Please model this.
Amino acid sequence: MSRSVVVVGAGPAGIEATAEACRRNARVTLIDEAARAGGQVYRQSHPALTGPEFADGGELARKSVLLRTFRDVERNIEYRPDTVAYALFPDRQLHVSHGSVSEVLQPDAVVLATGVREVAIPFPGWTTPGVMFAGGAQAILKSQRVLPGRNAVVAGCGPLPFVVAAQLLRAGGSVKALANLHPLTGMLTYPAALWHGRDIILEGLRYALTVRRAGTPRLSGYVPVHALGGDRLTGVVLARVDPEGRVVGGSERAIACDLLAVNYGFTANSELAAMAGARMHFDAVGGWVPECDEFGRTSVGDVFVAGDGAGLRGALVAEAEGRIVGAAAANPGETDRLHRELAEPLDRRRRYLSFQRAVRAALHVPPALWGLATDETVVCRCENVSVRDIRTAFASGHGTPNAVKRNIRAGMGWCGGRTCLPAIAALGQLHAGIPPGPMMTPRPMARPVTFAALAAQKRAVGR
Amino acid sequence: MKGTTLEFQFLFEGRWIPAREGQSVAAALIAAGERCLRIDEAGLPKGAVCGIGFCWECRCSIDGIADLRACMTPARPDMIVRRQRGLDPCPDRSS
Model:
């Protein structure tokens, strides 16, 4: 009987893993939280929401190839959109829910292709309505075809703020300033890496041209230090920071805006892997990720990981890796054969990984930047836990984010710590010298699930 | 950004908000200039933040059901969307 494989996440890694496992005659179930496949980067609009595209042609071409792969494989798999995977227990017991029904699946192999979410560095005023993650603002524009703000300031580090600023401009918005912590020209110190990523760099240059033509003020080395406004954003104070991440006094400048789109990189959605008991490690770029080998095998038998959820490397790596991991999930223990058959995606992943080294440098966050938040600044937005509360907890002997969570509820609210966990760990390091250490223990539910869905649980009989 | 799709309205805090078929509640509200979608337990105004459903900051009461994410809930004609306030998450149920 053929192997059963459940893939979690229908982004580039999940779709490629599904297609490859399917080619190898596995029975594949693809679980996805969204209504339509594509993931975050290749997000699809509702079919009724037609309109112009603001993404680069290169990205749109890759998206159409990936979605064609998905459509070709869709009829041969069990595809479950609008479905959340909220727990993964020993022996690959994967708990999923859809509407008001939940179900326990127990396949031969689980592939976690759960991607990443954005990281924000808290600063005074960052809870003001109108302050958004840059990728969140982009999602409103890309999939909803709504301009998330008429007068925007875009800030942060890495390539995303650049892309978002250009897309806002192409959609007819006005961008009052584009503030980047590091100049992207830092990437030029990695010539070999740039060669491997030349297609992506061309896309970047076209976005840069859009920003340049619009005459958008570029502020290199500046970050948002204060959001202004009450029940809506009216402006933002930007200030220059030194290489250690400390604000340079007197460099502050206020800019009126109704949207601040900010991104300081990404952190892995690795709760399910950690819940399953996989050995995890912390990477300053990309967050807590499960340890895995070249085929995505974690320390837990037949639990695999692919794409950004295995470490931040971008969509191109994720596509190649999806094929590699999908093959290993369908044909486990056949290492020599896999090496032979996967020569192309293994080589493609190696080339794009080398490009990612250049991007990593642009995502470096100097530790002192986490000190932008003052004592009163709310860090855990769900439970209204301030910097003072967190600092006091660490100072009084709570040695890990877990201990802080248990005592002052930081990370215990609706979002399950997904928004504030990186900040809590970084504040422990900044104020108490405590290294990030183990991840805050993810408990079920990895996503909020209704009691009705838990009560109506279907359990797979046998396999 | 106009199309030939179905257009309709829903109510937010007594104001009719135009929306298009396929749009989320959050997107329609943002397009209509609404930024504050909730008043939290500490009295802080909150709006949409992550745009993709993980932060839960944009949760609203919709047709009497509390804590639905505006960014993940498709807008429907004549739905009634309310701003949740503090520990009274469902204004319609209590009134």
Observations:
- Chain A has a mean pLDDT of 94.
- The longest strand of chain A covers residues 222-229.
- Chain A touches chain B through 46 residues (CB under 8 Å).
